[in-house]
């Protein structure tokens, strides 16, 4: 710990530890499913369908998830979501052992696991502002991003490749075990992890959801961040949905093995891990607005890079740099949203943001599969890389002055009187 920095506290570190197992499980399953799908089909739209099914719940259930998070015990929601994911991964193990698998079964597994994810991943960041002071949020979020990305993106993908190569059933068995342990650990945090902030009198579900949407919609800076995130996720999901076809197999442009594919994805995570420790320094050196704009720029360039070269080292290096940009942008925007949003609205505002930001993922995955079928795999990366650069238009609304005004409550375009 740097001199003069107050400790984040035992409650935060317990939350940090409980996050690691859940994200490692998620990282293994999300890479294992498309690798398993290659045993059933090589059709780009059908392979992309796995990513569509995994991300579709953010489009369908993000807003109800936010309302639940602001109404119920956030610890129990996190534990229940992990238990459900453990059950569905365990079910896939049984299906594979019985040789009853199909691409449709993988869609169901991805859909159910994705639905549980909307609850868990909406509850977790809504708890954080209760555990650390506002001025420590960038550091706390950076450390959480570090463990999430290390487990989810750096360790999970290579581990998935190894498990699939060893035995197909091992790939879903590992996350089933990890989620099961995580489900048990979350309630054990009860003495240190608050269940949620005090709520005002509850209205109807529709009124609850509308309140979160209005708060996000009236904040100019938050609107810009949400639009930028949605566009970037649309483009990155389009490329990620077909990357397995572009990368894996002797006949693919990159010619990687399953293990090599896992390491390629791990380059994104390595960059994200590095970025999580650089975010504070970059913000101090460049200012928040320039740091965020630069981060979106390098991440967008990484999206299109495979369209320019299929060399694994070059693509991996681009993913590494893009990962740095991705996490710098994420930490800065999430920390700002946490500072601005009142505690009782945290779940709904977070879910409203993810309705756009993560709801774009299934649309992007479907778009990537369709473009690959019509224009070829390389064209997907080139087209989506160009579109990703359009996210920078949102930086016109994201200035240091605008962010400062939003945090101090002096933004003339922001909501007031909550």
TrEMBL record:
The chain crosses the membrane at residues 46-69, 90-113, 159-190, 224-248, 260-279, 291-308, 314-334, 378-398. It is a multi-pass membrane protein. The lineage of its organism: Bacteria, Bacillati, Actinomycetota, Actinomycetes, Pseudonocardiales. Residues 11-403 form the Major facilitator superfamily (MFS) profile domain. PROSITE patterns: MFS. Keywords: Cell membrane, Membrane, Transmembrane, Transmembrane helix, Transport. Pfam families: MFS_3. The keyword Magnesium does not apply. InterPro entries: MFS_dom, MFS_trans_sf, TM_effector. This is MFS transporter. It is found in: Cell membrane.
């Amino acid at each position: 710990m740097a001199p003069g920095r107050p400790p984040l506290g035992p409650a935060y570190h317990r939350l940090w530890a409980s996050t690691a197992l859940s994200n490692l499980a998620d990282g293994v399953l999300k890479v294992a499913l498309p690798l398993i799908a290659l045993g059933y089909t090589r059709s780009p739209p059908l392979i992309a369908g796995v990513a569509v099914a995994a991300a579709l719940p953010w489009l369908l259930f993000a807003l109800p998830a936010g309302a639940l998070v602001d109404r119920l015990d956030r610890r129990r929601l996190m534990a229940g979501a992990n238990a459900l994911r453990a059950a569905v991964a365990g079910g896939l193990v049984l299906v594979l052992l019985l040789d009853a698998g199909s691409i449709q079964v993988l869609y169901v597994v991805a859909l159910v696991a994705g639905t549980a994810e909307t609850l868990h991943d909406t509850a977790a960041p809504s708890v954080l502002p209760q555990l650390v002071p506002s001025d420590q949020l960038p550091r706390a979020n950076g450390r959480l991003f570090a463990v999430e990305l290390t487990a989810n993106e750096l360790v999970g993908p290579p581990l998935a490749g190894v498990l699939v190569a060893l035995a197909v059933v091992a790939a879903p068995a590992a996350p089933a075990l990890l989620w099961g342990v995580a489900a048990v650990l979350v309630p054990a945090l009860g003495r240190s992890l608050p269940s949620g902030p005090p709520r005002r009198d509850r209205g109807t579900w529709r009124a609850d959801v509308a309140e979160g949407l209005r708060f996000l919609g009236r904040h100019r800076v938050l609107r810009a961040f949400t639009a930028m995130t949605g566009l970037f996720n649309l483009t990155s999901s389009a490329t990620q949905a077909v990357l397995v076809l572009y990368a894996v197999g002797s006949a693919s442009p990159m010619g990687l093995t399953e293990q090599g594919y896992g390491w390629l994805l791990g380059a994104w995570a390595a960059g994200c891990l590095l970025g999580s420790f650089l975010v504070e320094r970059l913000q101090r050196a460049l200012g928040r607005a320039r740091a965020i704009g630069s981060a979106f720029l390098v991440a967008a360039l990484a999206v299109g890079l495979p369209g320019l070269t299929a060399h694994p080292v070059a693509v991996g290096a681009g993913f590494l740099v893009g990962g740095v940009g991705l996490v710098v942008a994420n930490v800065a925007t999430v920390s700002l949203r946490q500072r601005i949003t009142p505690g009782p609205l945290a779940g709904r505002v977070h879910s409203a943001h993810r309705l756009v930001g993560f709801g774009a993922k299934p649309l992007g995955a479907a778009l990537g599969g369709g473009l690959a079928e019509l224009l070829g795999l390389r064209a997907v990366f080139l087209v989506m890389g160009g579109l990703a650069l359009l996210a920078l238009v949102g930086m016109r609304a994201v200035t240091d002055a605008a962010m400062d005004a939003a945090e101090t409550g002096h933004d003339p375009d922001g909501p007031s009187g909550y």
